[in-house]
Design a protein that fits this description.
DNA primase DNAg catalytic core, N-terminal domain; five-stranded antiparallel beta sheet; Dna Topoisomerase Vi A Subunit, Chain: A, domain 2; 5 domains; single chain; alpha+beta
């Protein structure tokens, strides 16, 4: 595996007790031979994740998530496989000389290098005598030197080509600097994109600087308050969420993520001790950003600006979150436009208390629908009630019941009349977050998945497979069997926990191995059960060949050709029945 040898990975995994490692993330309780806990990969309420110390594997029997210790840490922390290996190595005290930089796409090595060097130049500017006024501005907003350092905040000087000249002296190509949005070109002349602005680096999910937000601080008029890096090869606004890298561990600790509008709001909250904060990169969430939030597996608290635009964005973004089964809460800051202003006026303690009293999105929506309506007016009241009833269509029965009773009591509308407008259906199950829909599998897939699971778990099953069947029809399945044979030949044995690590670095089988893991129950290995799968699959393959014979005979118009085909296919079928692998 790139960056870490396979032998080192196996050493780390064999030194790690999966029960102890997973137990650091979720409480586990022993039941029989295994341990059970609340699965963090879906909205679990009863312990459905089993962790086996004997086999060093985990499996959720509701959302089907399973794997070894590295798989769990990778998916729980939303990091790469190699980063998970490094984390586990640290936990068990095995020194690991691994540089995460090695896992980055080398295509963009130069781009990351330029952005990193630019960040250092801007940081140095802020620390210089010319940065005194900018530092004073930041300190006045309670952004300490430690926070400035943590966010790598810098300063673009009041000089139209300072940065460009420094980067050119470093021999960076002007066209590349232009591509990255650091300069503007006009003929043979080049100018800095950012002038006299506090510079806030924008990082990707791995913490690499990919762009900047530049903010005015001298109270300039008739200029944009913020300007951002244009989209580039490494900076796609819709793929990022500001402060994700810094905040992700705090989000897991607090079990919620707070989303605000502005970068400075996020930094101010972070500096005030509210570190589970993210900021939007726009007023609409992209599919990619929703996927990022899903992987956090925590409720999202929307704390957008306290104006009409913020209210509309709260409504729209909340709808998207709920639609994607992400629990959503809302905080509307009373008496202040945004978190920064609220903290200045009312203090950090009051701010934290406000967060504790968030509304769930449904209650917020009920209030939002009242906006700009005179509910003393019969027509407007009717429109409001109709809007609420429409919203209730996707709600559970209990929410429908409570809401309708509230409407009835508050507006003196007969409950039975309201109820007649709403469809009460069979109770829905609670939404599951980040669970892949289980595709209905046919008998062939069920047999193959379980056979491959056994083959990856113990070398003795490969011998039985080769003797009794020895063949699968799909090329990717045969490729996996070849890799299993190679692995056993090299290692002398096989177990699923180690083979999962091996498969991570083998592109041709990686996807199929993941499917097998997600589509089997990790049952205890049993030879008779394995033979049942072999016999069932053998029958399926024989029937498929017989159907092919019938199709060929029926499609033939020539009686002689039909007879020749029958004789040939009878011979083939005879070979199949004899169990020969060359058919």
């Amino acid at each position: 595996m790139q960056g870490i040898s396979e032998s080192k990975i196996n050493e780390i995994r064999n030194s790690a007790d999966i029960v102890n490692i997973i137990g650091e993330y979720i409480p586990l309780k022993m039941q029989g031979k295994n341990y059970f806990g609340i699965c963090p990969f879906h909205d679990d309420h009863t312990p459905s994740m089993s962790v086996s110390r004997d086999r060093q594997l985990f499996k959720c029997f509701v959302c089907n998530k399973g794997g070894n210790v590295f798989t769990f840490v990778k998916d729980y922390e939303n990091i790469s496989y190699l980063e998970a290996v490094k984390k586990v190595a640290d936990k068990v005290g095995i020194p690991l000389d691994y540089n995460p930089e090695a896992s980055y796409d080398n295509r963009y090595k130069l781009e990351y290098e330029i952005m990193d060097y630019t960040t250092k130049i801007l940081q140095n500017n802020l620390s210089s005598a010319e940065g005194a006024k900018a530092r004073e501005y930041l300190n006045s907003r309670s952004i300490t030197d430690d926070i400035i350092k943590e966010f790598k905040i810098g300063l673009a000087l009041d000089n139209s080509n300072y940065l460009a000249s420094v980067l050119e002296k470093k021999k960076y190509d002007v066209n590349k600097l232009d591509e990255l949005g650091l300069i503007n070109k006009s003929g043979i002349n080049v100018y800095d994109k950012f002038i006299n602005r506090i510079m806030i680096p924008l990082t990707n999910l791995e913490g690499k600087v990919v762009g900047f937000t530049g903010r005015i601080f001298n109270g300039e008029k008739d200029v944009a308050k913020y300007i951002n890096t244009k989209e580039t090869s490494i900076y796609k606004k819709g793929n990022l969420i500001f402060n994700y890298y810094n905040a992700k561990n705090y989000i897991r600790e607090e079990k919620k993520a707070i989303i605000v509008e502005g970068n400075m709001d996020a930094i101010r909250m972070y500096s005030s001790g509210v570190k589970n904060v993210l900021a939007l990169m726009g007023t609409v969430l992209t599919k990619e950003q929703i996927d990022i939030l899903k992987k956090l597996r925590v409720p999202i608290v929307l704390m957008l600006d306290n104006d009409d635009a913020g209210s509309l964005a709260t409504n729209n973004i909340g709808e998207e979150l709920v639609k994607n089964n992400i629990p959503c809460e809302v905080v509307r800051l009373s008496g202040a436009k945004d978190p920064d202003e609220y903290i200045v006026k009312y203090g950090v303690d009051s701010f934290k208390d406000t967060i504790k009293h968030s509304l769930n999105y449904f209650d917020y929506k009920l209030e939002y629908l009242k906006n700009n309506k005179n509910l003393n007016n019969t027509e407007e009241l009717i429109n409001y009630v109709k809007s609420v009833i429409k919203m209730l269509n996707d709600a559970d029965n209990l929410t429908k019941e409570i809401t309708l009773k509230k409407l009835s009591e508050e507006y003196h509308i007969d409950y039975e009349v309201l109820k007649s407008e709403v469809s009460f259906t069979e109770e829905k199950k609670e939404p599951i977050i980040n669970v892949n829909p289980v595709k209905t599998k046919n008998k062939y897939e069920i047999c193959v998945n379980n056979i491959l699971y056994y083959l990856m778990s113990d070398s003795k099953y490969l011998k039985i497979f080769n003797k009794r069947l020895g063949f699968l029809k799909n090329p990717e399945e045969r490729a996996l069997i070849s890799e299993i044979e190679y692995y056993i030949e090299e290692k002398g044995k096989i177990n699923l926990a180690d083979f999962l690590s091996y498969a991570e670095n083998c592109d041709k089988i990686k996807e199929l191995v993941a499917r097998v893991v997600d589509n089997t129950e990790f049952a205890e290995l049993d030879e008779e059960t394995f033979l049942e799968y072999i016999r069932a699959l053998d029958n399926i393959l024989k029937k498929e060949n017989i159907y092919k014979i019938k199709e060929k005979i029926n499609s033939s118009m020539d009686i002689n050709e039909q007879m020749d085909s029958i004789e040939k296919q009878i011979a083939i079928t005879k070979k199949i029945m004899e169990g020969k692998k060359d058919v």
